[in-house]
Structure formats: C-alpha cells, structure tokens
Specification:
Helix content of chain C: over 70%
Helix content of chain B: 25-40%
CATH architecture of chain C: Orthogonal Bundle
Number of helices of chain C: 15
Shape of chain B: globular
Low-confidence stretches of chain B: none
CATH class of chain C: Mainly Alpha
Structural class of chain B: alpha/beta
Number of strands of chain C: 4
Strand content of chain C: under 5%
Largest sheet of chain B: 6 strands, mixed
Mean pLDDT of chain C: 86
Number of strands of chain B: 22
Oligomer: heterotrimer
Number of helices of chain B: 17
Strand order of the largest sheet of chain C: 1-4
Chains: A alpha/beta, B alpha/beta, C mainly alpha
Shape of chain C: globular
C-alpha cells in the first residue's frame, strides 16, 4: 500500500515536472499580457476611467485564463512615460491600451513600445504620430460641443444670453469649445456673455458661476460643459435664488446627473451628452479579445457622443460606476 | 611695509543721530594701540569705518598719507586693513577652512581647491594655537574656538593693519597668552594693531599706547607705560571709578540649599559633586572645554545626564527640563546671550516676562502690567534704552546682559547660575553686575558664577570650584584664591 | 528704511537717549507702513475692481467673496500659528478633502440609524473637528518626537490623505444624502443678521486666533519659539509641546473649514481642497508673517486671504484679460503686495 502511494506520488511529481517543462513555452506563446496606462483618478471623469479599467480587468481575467491585465495610473505625463517603460521591461506586455496624459508628450514613449512589437490601442487623446498606434478608440469631442450647442440653440429659440464654463486649457477642451462656438455662429441672436476656466472642478465652477451671476443680470442658459462643473453651477444659482436661468447643460453623463434627468428632479436639467468613461472598458475588452484570437482592431473607432434626454436616459445609467 | 593711519575729523551719523563728532588722531606704523572707551563711545563705529564696513558721513582718514574711503571690507582688505569682529561673522554650516577662505576661495581651474585651502587653514590655525580639523563645521565649535577662527581668518588675509575688537572676551587664560604671543610676533613683522578691550590689564600688557574715546569724541592719547589702569578707567568714564568689586561678605555657614553628587554629562562632565549654601557666591573656573557650561546644562536637563543625584533643600529632585528647574527655583543664564539668552528680535517686554508669563495671564495676558514691570526693571537694573518698545537687539551688549539678568531674576529663583555674566560688557556695566550679584547673595540666594576672568572670580566669590577635563580639580576657599593657584588647578600643573 | 544698525553700531546709539528715541520713532513709522502694506494692496485692488465693474462693490458680491474666503481664511489662521513657530503644513488641502469625505460617509452611515437629522449633522461636525485635531496631533508628534522636518512629514501626508479620499470615493465623488443635506445646508447658505454663517465663523476664528496669539501665554511662546527656539528652550518654554499644539490648532481650523465646506456642494471628490495649502500659506505670507517664523499677525493673514480671493473675483467679473493669463495676474498682484510689506532685512 505504502509503496503504491509512493509510486503514485512519484508519478505525479514526474508528471508535474513534465508538464512544467513541456507546457510552459506553449502557454507563454498564447498568453496575452495587456498593459493599461491611464491617468490617475483626480476628478469624476478620470475616476470613471480608472473604475472601468479595473472593471474590465476583473471581468476579462475571469473569463480568459490566458489573459493578464496590468493597470497603471499616472498623475502626470512624465510618470506615465516611466510606467510605459516599466510595463515593457518588467511586466513584458505584448499588448497595450493607453489613455495618454498628453498627446504630444506621450507620442515618443508610446512609439517605443510599439516598435518593440507590442500591439497598441490608443484611447481618447490621439498621438501626434499615428504610426505609433495599431488602433485608436475615442470619444467624440466635436459632438460633445456640437450636440449641446444645437440643443441649447433650439431650446432658447435662437436668442438669449448664455454663459459657458471651460475645463482646463487642453486640445480636448479646445475641440469641444470650437465645435460649440461653430454652431453658435449660426445663431447670432444668442449672446455668449463669457467663458471662463473652472478646471472641471465643482468648487471652481461654483465661484465662477457666482461671479457670472453678479456680473450678468439676465442669463438664460449655462453650458457647464461637464457634469462636475454643473453641480457647482446649480448650487451657485440656488444660492442666488435667481430664476432667469432656464437650462443648465452639463456633459459626459455622470451618474448623478443622469439620475436627476431620469427622475426629472431639476427643471433646469433637461438634456446631457454622452461621453462615458465606459469606453475605457470597451477599448480594453476589444483589444484583449482581438489579441487572444490573434485578430486586429479597426484602425479608428469613434464612440459616438449621443444626446441624452429623459426618454433614453436609462440606457446611460450605470449605478455601480463612481462617475 | 607698516601702515600709518591718520583720522581727520571723522564724523558719522545714523539718520539724525551723530555718533562720532569729528574724531582726529593718528596711529604710528607698527605699533599696538589700545582703543579704549565705554560701550557707546564710538570705538566700534570708528574701526568699522577704517575697515570698510561703514562709511564716514564727513571727514576721512589717510593710510601712509594717502586719503582713503573704503566702500566695503574687500577694498579695505586689499589695502591690508582687516577687522576681527567682536560678534562672529561665521557661516555656521561651513567648515573652518571654508570660513577662513569665504570670499577668497582658492581655485584650481573651475573648481575649488579644497586641499590647498585646508592646508593653508591648518597653518593659520596652528599659528594661533587652534587645535582642530579644518574640515570641522563651525557649528560644532564652542564660542572660544569660533573667536580663534575669526582671528585665523584675519591672519590668513595677510593683514598689514589688524583691528581686534574684544578678542579675548571668550578666551581662556592659556588661549589669551597664545594670542598675546601672536600679537608680539605680528608686531615684529611690522603689522599695525588696534586692540579694543574692556580688560585693562590686557591693554596694559600688550599695547604701546592708548587712545581713549568718550561719547563720540577723542579724549586722550598716551603711552601705555605712563598710564595706570585707574587713570585709563577714569578717562573712559570721565569721572573717578575705583572699587570695581563690592566688599566681600562673610562666607555663609548655613546648611547647603543645593547639593549635586556624582553628576555625569556624557562627553563633558564626570562624577561632579558640589554644594551651594544660601547667600553664597560660588565660582566655577576652568579652561574652555573643561565642561562647566555643559555641567549646568546637564543639571537643568538641557543636555542628557547619565548619572547623579540632585538635592534641593534636602529633597531629592528630578530635573529633566528647564521648566522643572524654574519650578524648583533654579535659573540658568547662558554664556551665549544671542543664541540662548535673549530673543534679540522680540521686544524688551516680551523678553522680560517670558519665564514668568503665568503671572501676567488671567487668562489673557495683561500687556499693561507687563509694561509696568518692564519700567520697574529698566529702572532697577539701569538698562539704558531710549524707548521701551525697542527690540532687545537694539540694546548695547551691556544693556542686553542687564536685560537678560532681569529676565531670569524675574522668576525670583533661589539659585541663579550666571555663565560668563560680564562677557563683552564695559567697565561701568561690569561694576553694576558685580554689585547686583552681591545683592542677590545678600538676599539669601545661592549664586553660581561661571567665568573665564579670574580677577572676577577672585574679587567676587566665597568659594571657587576649578574644573579640568570634566572633573572637579579643586574647591578653593576665599583665602586660597590667587590667579596662580586657579591657573595651576585649571591646567593640571598643580 | 532706516539704516539697519549692526549690533556693534547699535551699542553706540544706545547710550544717547535722545538719539535712540529718534531712530526708534523713525523705524516705528516705517514698521507701521509695512504693516499696512497688505491692507493698502487690498484697498487699491478693490478700487480697481470697482472701476472695472461697478457690480464689484455690491453687497451681494462682497458677501460672496468673503464667504468664499472663509475656508482658506480659517485654515490660514491656523497656518499662521504653525508658520510663526517655524513650521509648515503642506497637507491642509488633502486633509480637508479627507475630513470632508470621512464626515459625509459617517453622516450617511448613521443617517439611516438615527432619526434626527440634526443629531446626525451635529455628530458629523464633532467628528470632523476631532479628526482634524487628530491629524494635527499626528503631524505634531512626527515632527517633535519623531524629529522629521515638517516639510517632509506634511508632504507625505498630503499624498496619504488625498489617496485615501480617492480610495473611499472610488475615484468619483462622495455625496451627502439628501435628508441630511437639507438640514445641513444652512450652515453654508444661511445668514445671521444679514451676514452669511461662514463669514461669522471666519471672523470668530480670526478674533480668537488673534487673541490667542497676542494675549495668551501660548501665543507668546509660539512667537518666542519661532524667533529663536534655543532661547525659548533655555527660558524654560516647553518647546515640543507648544510646537505640537500649533499643528493641532491648524488641524482643528481645517476641521472647521471642512464643516463649512461640506454643505456647500454636499460632496467631496478628489479635487476637493486642491492647492488649498498654497493659498493658505500665501495668505499668511502676503499678510506679513515671515516664512522662517518668529513674526506674524492674524489680521495680516485675514487681509491676505481676502486679497487672494478678490483677485480671482475681479478676473471673473471682467473680460479685459485673456483667460489664459489669469494665473499671471494673480502672481503679479501677490508679488506687488509682498513688495509693499517686505520686511526689514
């Protein structure tokens, strides 16, 4: 009896050794190590990005044993560049999904990764040199400015006073702003009283809006350009007890704002435009699945920004997301 | 070549205030001249003008017949005129060598030549007898060593005219002797020396002639050999001053109020025992580095103490912080007035009441009561200040010391430890402080005087503890006190 | 500036009473002008604001600005103590964010169990103040007992506090439940005798701060330590304890500011309190406190804080300068005011 057990153990050990030696190269060849480099969660939107990236890691690793996803968050462009090097040198990734902190600054580091034969999917902010990427997945910044402009122009009946808030001076913000003003050019009776930066920040938006209210006696609509900023704007209007503002248009479809819209709790919140950080989830999923099968993604994939109204709001409501 | 200087009605104003009223006199080349005067007589201002730190408002001076006006000390140094500061102008975080060459660094190509600077510094240090590694940070030196670094710095600049402002205030007798030897050597090399000191016996020893200033005016010039100390003092003060020290009282015979036994302060003091009786003035003598200051800092918990027992009025007490010291009636006035004794940037009032704020807090502080107290103390201690709202730093050295004394005495301590109480203080103020010490003792307090001026210890104390290398070498009674005896014990040659 | 006498020359002055009287009067006049520097700057700025946009001088705008200033101002009052004692605290913005988040989480959690929303808010406020004091104590202990430079300690906690908030918020926002929010919101939006509550709290904090700094033993010791720590130690001041307490005072001030901040938006997010540390430190220094410690005034700090928020208010109320240059204008004004009150060197 004893000897049988011993024999079995031996066999098992031998098998394991064999398996380890024989199988290892095969597994490594098929295994996809996917690096994800994204900005750290410093405000609602990037918070959503981080959330969806981790969600994708959880779901995909569970479904695919041959997949390993490594998520790195960076507080600035330099840190992100370092992380790319680490992902390559230490984690030995063979696929990368990167949300560049800045387009220009990250182009070179991403190209280096690409040149080493890593499959690269760039998300949201395009590189200045597109040859460094295999695929590009992005939200639609032009629509992000155009849709609210068209909606507001219609809702205001083509005339009235409007104030706008801007985010942080970046190409992203500029694209949205140009799209917005481009539409407004067709509506000369709508006056854009001013547009100040509020850094996609609730507190700064509160202060800027307070000062708009001091300065302008008649405001019909506010383009807050972001749901975080819309929170500050609404609080400032509430405090001033002003009733002239009919519409506050946020943007990006944050959970709280979509809920308000769905429930019809605030008459000033009547529409929104989607720019969900969920595209991070989709990008990782698409890339991972394509690589597992050895396929490629289409070179450019724009996730359309859509107008959200009370009717279709439930489609954009993700109660588990922090954003 | 020796330098001769001729001051020609030098006048200096600070704003509306004239501190030098047309001073004229000349200095002969290659001689040692003692520049005498009370604090405020204008000595420091005059030598600062000579060495480029200040500019005369009117009048000028010639060097070897050529009129000069130095815009800064560099220009003066180029002519060979170097001032050794009374207050230290050393960068504490630099090394001795770096300080000596500060502003005159030697370079090898683009880079500093540390090796040759260290070697040159070492040579200069040896000349004045400073035993230390030139790469030691100045912060780690004790006050006397810093003074020696200042002197080394000046000597290394190849001075032809050297001004020494109270160079021995912090030096021990041995170091002072070495300085005097250096002065003789420099004189032999033809260097002209201006020697400022309150210690008249030193002036008598090293100078060839004296020049006396009083209240911004030139008063007298005389060969040293023909002038007695008493005459010098009278010229400075403008009236007759005798009896520097109060008459000694009979040594008290009461039971000791304070007993320290077997106290050790790591690195500084080993197994030190002594006692203080009420009404007694107990001196502590010793060379710099003998551990006197550190012993008392250790006793008060300002430094770690490794062993020892302290009894106050027969009760064993645990002193771990100055706060506890004050609570037990002990106050310690540091030798380092600006570094540890007074807040020079704060007002007189804030300084005076710092140890006793609880008296003025009900619970809010009562500035009016503080001001009343200040007025009283200014009167009582004879602190000379124009305005009670001045900062402590605006007072002269002697008046700062009086304020520091008032501050620590304001806590009404039973035992008061005075570390170098008359350093940098002029004749008149010194006498005031000696009489104050006697008054404190007569009130039944125990007074400890740590001093490097042997005359002072001999003139004042009932008993003197002599320390050497961290240990008590001897305890001498009043009838045994002589300079020879003290030096012998302090140097271990007894 | 009168000539700055070195010590040796001063000794020359001191023996002639008339002389020193004249100098000290001169220097006191100069001193007074320097003290008025920040106020002068503020007044000039207000005139400029009023000229550029008359709405600047309306009561509503003035109250807006003062209410906004309250957070930074209250923190700056605490910061004045820390800086005068020779310390620094870089973590206050992150600390405020973490306290805000923790406080909301607590109120949401106990809100379901406790019936009275008033009690929930009261508990939340007490919790915020305690947490602030506790964070301050931790700073103080690390700095005095741990003998670590305050810059490093608080740079470390700057990251730690914000990271924990981000972690609790999952990168998003922590939002206060509505029922509690309704009861709580008057703490920011309410008024007493026509003045918004935050202004009252700001004034009260500044008054108490000024009283403590100038009229208590504690305040005197803080100044003594900052002026020269060794001298204070030799004068039997318990240096470590006093220094530690300055961080506790600041922590409590951050707690108070947070208590006022939370009802404004009813939420805390990773952007909450961003760069507040720099604004608070700038208010203190612009107000005439020396960054190296020793000297300082609460009144100056209050003016400094108001000045900083007036600058951005004016920029918002006008469109004469490109929005890209806002930060440059702020920088220039700060430097000019600092120039007006530059200290005697």
């Amino acid at each position: 009896m004893k000897s049988i057990i011993r024999k079995l153990t031996l066999t098992a050990a031998a098998l394991t050794t064999f398996a380890a030696v024989g199988m290892a190269p095969a597994t490594a060849a098929e295994k996809v190590v996917l690096g994800v480099a994204i900005p750290a969660a410093t405000h609602g939107f990037t918070g959503g990005i981080v959330f969806w990236a981790n969600q994708a890691k959880k779901d995909l690793e569970k479904a695919n044993p041959d997949l390993k996803v490594i998520v790195k968050t960076a507080a600035n462009a330099a840190e992100q560049a370092n992380q790319l090097q680490d992902l390559m040198a230490v984690s030995k990734i063979n696929a990368l999904v990167v949300f560049p902190f800045e387009s220009a600054a990250l182009t070179k580091p991403v190209a280096e990764v690409h040149n080493k034969g890593v499959y690269v999917t760039v998300v949201d902010r395009g590189l200045t040199d597109t040859s460094a990427q295999d695929a590009y997945v992005s939200g639609d910044n032009t629509a992000f400015g155009k849709i609210p402009a068209e909606y507001l122009a219609k809702a205001m009946g083509g005339k009235g006073n409007l104030v706008a808030l801007r985010g942080i001076a970046t190409t992203l913000d500029n694209e949205r702003w140009e799209a917005f003003t481009g539409v407004m050019k067709n509506h000369p009776d709508i006056k854009i009283l001013d547009a100040k930066y509020a850094n996609w920040n609730r507190d700064d938006a509160f202060k800027v809006m307070q000062d708009y209210l001091t300065r302008f006696k008649q405001i019909d609509a506010v383009w807050a350009a972001d749901d975080d900023m819309a929170v500050g704007v609404l609080k400032a209007i509430d405090q001033s007890k002003r009733t002239d503002i009919k519409i506050v248009f946020g943007g990006a479809g944050a959970k709280g704002m979509i809920k308000t819209l769905m429930d019809g709790k605030d008459p000033r919140i009547v529409a929104n435009v989607s720019y969900s950080p969920k595209f991070m989830y989709d990008s990782i999923k698409l890339t991972a699945e394509a690589r597992l099968k050895g396929e490629k993604l289409p070179a450019t994939y724009i996730i359309p920004s859509e107008l959200i109204t009370r009717e279709n709001a439930s489609k954009f409501y993700f109660p588990d997301s922090p954003f | 070549m020796s330098l001769a200087v001729d001051f020609r009605s030098v006048t200096k104003n600070f704003g509306l205030v004239e501190v030098l009223h047309g001073v004229s006199f000349s200095l002969e080349p290659g001689k040692v001249v003692g520049l005498l005067g009370e604090n405020g007589a204008g000595k420091s201002t005059l030598v600062k003008i000579l060495s480029g730190y200040e500019q005369a408002s009117d009048g000028d001076f010639t060097i070897n017949g050529v009129p000069h006006r130095f815009a800064n000390s560099r220009e003066a140094e180029r002519e060979g005129v170097v001032l050794i500061h009374q207050e230290f102008n050393l960068a504490e975080d630099l090394t001795i060598a770096q300080n000596i060459f500060l502003g005159h660094e030697k370079q090898k190509g683009l880079f500093l030549d540390d090796r040759s600077m260290n070697a040159a510094a070492k040579a200069a240090m040896q000349r004045i007898g400073l035993e230390a590694d030139p790469e030691t940070k100045v912060r780690r030196l004790i006050v006397a060593e810093k003074q020696l670094v200042e002197i080394a710095k000046a000597v290394s600049r190849n001075a032809r005219l050297l001004v020494m402002d109270e160079p021995t205030a912090t030096l021990t007798p041995t170091e002072t002797e070495r300085l005097f030897a250096l002065i003789a050597q420099l004189k032999a090399e033809g260097v002209t020396i201006i020697y400022i000191s309150h210690k008249l016996e030193e002036v008598e020893r090293v100078t060839d002639e004296i020049v006396v200033l009083r209240d911004g005016n030139f008063v007298a010039r005389a060969p040293t050999a023909e002038t007695t100390r008493q005459q010098m003092a009278n010229l400075m003060v403008g009236r007759d001053v005798s009896d520097m020290f109060p008459p000694k009282d009979v040594p008290p015979a009461a039971e000791p109020m304070f007993k320290a036994s077997g106290v050790s302060v790591p690195g500084w003091a080993k197994d030190v025992s002594f006692e203080i009786r009420p009404g007694e003035i107990l001196g502590f003598a010793g060379l710099v580095g003998a551990g006197r200051t550190e012993l008392f800092e250790g006793l008060l918990g300002l430094r770690p103490r490794s062993a020892g027992r302290i009894e106050i009025d027969g009760q064993v007490v645990d002193l771990r912080s100055p706060r506890q010291g004050v609570r037990h009636g002990i106050a310690y006035l540091s030798e380092d007035r600006k570094g540890k004794g007074l807040h020079v940037k704060l007002g007189l009032r804030e300084n005076l009441t710092l140890l006793t704020l609880e008296r003025y807090a009900h619970p809010l502080l009562d500035p009016k009561a503080e001001r009343v107290a200040l007025r009283e103390k200014v009167e009582e201690f004879g602190i000379r200040t124009g305005d009670l709202n001045n900062r402590a730093g605006s007072l002269s050295g002697g008046n700062q010391q009086k304020l520091a004394l008032a501050k620590f005495l304001h806590a009404d301590p039973k035992i008061i430890v005075l570390d170098e109480p008359t350093r940098g203080v002029d004749v008149g103020a010194k006498r005031d402080i000696y009489f104050l010490i006697q008054r404190l003792a007569r009130e039944g307090r125990g007074v400890v005087v740590i001093s490097s001026e042997l005359v002072e210890l001999i003139g004042l104390c009932h008993r003197v503890v002599v320390m050497r290398a961290g240990k008590v070498q001897a305890t001498l009674n009043a009838d045994q006190l002589t300079e020879e005896e003290l030096i012998a014990h302090a140097t271990g040659t007894h | 500036m009168p000539p700055v006498p070195t010590d040796a020359t001063t000794s020359t002055l001191a023996n002639s009473p008339a002389a020193s009287l004249a100098t000290s009067q001169g220097s006191r006049l100069a001193q007074r002008l320097q003290d008025l520097g920040p106020l002068l700057g503020l007044i000039l700025l207000c005139i400029a604001g009023w000229v550029l946009n008359p709405d600047f001088a309306t009561a509503a705008n003035v109250l807006n600005v003062l209410t906004r200033t309250a957070f930074i101002g209250i923190i700056a009052v605490g910061m004045t103590f820390v800086i005068i004692a020779g310390g620094i605290d870089l973590s206050v913005g992150s600390m405020a964010a973490l306290i805000a988040g923790a406080m909301i989480l607590l109120m949401n959690a106990i809100g379901t169990a406790i019936e009275s929303a008033y009690l929930v808010v009261t508990l939340g406020i007490v919790f915020a103040l305690l947490l602030g004091a506790l964070f301050g104590l931790a700073h103080g202990l690390l700095i005095t007992k741990g003998r670590i430079e305050p810059f490093i300690v608080t740079l470390g906690t700057l990251g730690i506090f914000r990271a924990y908030l981000t972690y609790f918020a999952n990168g998003g926002a922590i939002t206060l439940d509505n029922a509690v929010s309704d009861v709580y919101s008057p703490v920011y939006y309410g008024s007493l005798l026509g003045l918004p509550i935050p202004i009252w709290v700001f004034l009260l904090t500044a008054l108490i701060g000024g009283l403590v700094l100038n009229r208590t033993r504690y305040g005197r010791y803080v100044q003594a330590i900052g002026s020269n720590e060794q001298v204070a130690r030799y004068a039997a001041v318990e240096v470590d304890r006093i220094k530690m307490l300055t961080y506790v005072v600041l922590g409590i001030c951050v707690g108070i500011a947070t208590v006022l901040y939370v009802p404004r938006l009813g939420s805390a997010s990773p952007t909450t309190g961003l760069l507040w540390e720099l604004e608070a430190i700038a208010s203190v220094i612009v107000g005439g406190t020396a960054l190296k410690g020793g000297e300082g005034r609460i009144s100056g700090t209050v003016i400094g804080a108001i000045l900083l928020s007036v600058i951005s208010n004016i920029l918002n109320l006008t469109s004469i300068i490109s929005v890209y240059l806002n930060a440059a204008v702020q920088g220039i004004v700060i430097i000019i005011v600092a120039f007006l009150q530059r200290s005697r060197r």
